Amino acid sequence: MPEGDTIYRTARALQKAIGGKVVTGFDTGLAKLARVNDDAPLVGRVVEKVESRGKWCLIFFSSDLILVTHMLMSGSWHLYRAGEKWWMGRDRMRVVIRTAEWEAVGFNIPVAEFHTAGSLERSSQVPKLGPDILSDEFTVEGGVARLAAFGRENPEAEIAVVLLNQRVLAGLGNVYKSEVAFAAGVNPFRAMRTITPREMEVMVEVSQRYMKANVVDGAGDGIVTYSGNRRTTHSSNREERLWVYGRQGQECRRCGATVMMRKQGVQARSTYWCPECQPWVGMGETAAPVGRAMVVRRGKIGC
Ligand SMILES: [Zn+2]
User: Which of 18, 149, 195, 208 has its CA at 20 to 30 Å from residue 48's CA atom?
Assistant: First the structure.
């Protein structure tokens, strides 16, 4: 699914291609958007800017109109030169924004709505996003403060579920959630009340570093899709890009223990962790240690 960095890249590619350009055509398969376009046509407006806020992509048009899209699991924005063949069928097209040179096509976008600056401000979803990890204003201190505040109000919330909560910090997706917890040596099932300020600091710092490292330039031309090239380990080997995500049953790259996976949270998202590098810390609680009992050691101890 698209993670924050994917949406960020998408927004940046859209900004490069259609930012500052006049809209010459607009099509949509979504009735709600079509109605707004009938009343207040997009053609003739200028695309003022495109920005990402966590997993939301916002396209600002002149005269106070904002197209807000969320990709959820299925959606994507593609860029095509005028007249170029689309990589997906017309039936999956939800929105097309045309300029003299480009067609920005939103496929399978499940959430798309028009806003004014005022309605966006009042929207129950978009403005409530936490600070965007990839924004220039984001600071580690600010991120830690958000985590700590949420932890005080939700002491039993599990850290990896909180890392995914876009209202706390915007941008982390399911892959980075596991990678960040691993990098900080934090068991992803620990309750917020057991997480130390130092651990929060490491997780926020690592979140920012990983996400920035995975935002690469050069997506301005041609098709924009999820590249699958996320990496956190510094290894140039494609197979060794991630520490724990997707590696259930394989050896931990650090200690050789067996990487575990379990579904977590109400959304049952897959969480990967190393039970040795991310030991359970229950602070005297009776909660069952997660995974510890099932550790299978395989050589390479303490590498
Ligand atoms: Zn390990």
Answer: 208
How many other C-beta atoms are found inside a 10 Å radius of the C-beta of residue 64? 15
Catalytic residue among 9, 53, 55, 94: 55
CATH superfamily of the domain spanning 4-128: MutM-like, N-terminal (3.20.190.10)
Catalytic residue among 262, 269, 279, 289: 269
Residue-wise pLDDT for 170-208, tens only, equals 888 888 999 999 999 999 999 999 999 999 999 999 999
Q: 285 C-alpha to center of ligand 1: Å?
A: 24
What pTM, to 2 d.p., does this model score? Answer: 0.61
Kind of pairing, strands 65-70 and 93-98?
Answer: unpaired
Look up 55 and say whether it is catalytic.
yes
| Dihedral angle, C-alpha 193, 289, 232, 226, nearest 10 ° | -90
213 Cβ neighbours under 8 A, 6+ residues apart: 231, 232
Q: Does domain 140-294 have CATH number 1.10.8.50?
A: yes
Task: Find out whether 67 and 109 touch, Cβ atoms under 8 Å.
Answer: no
Cβ partners under 8 Å of residue 237, min gap 6: none
User: In the annotation, is 3 catalytic?
Assistant: yes
Q: Determine the distance separating the centroid of ligand 1 and the alpha carbon of 193, expressed in angstroms.
A: 24
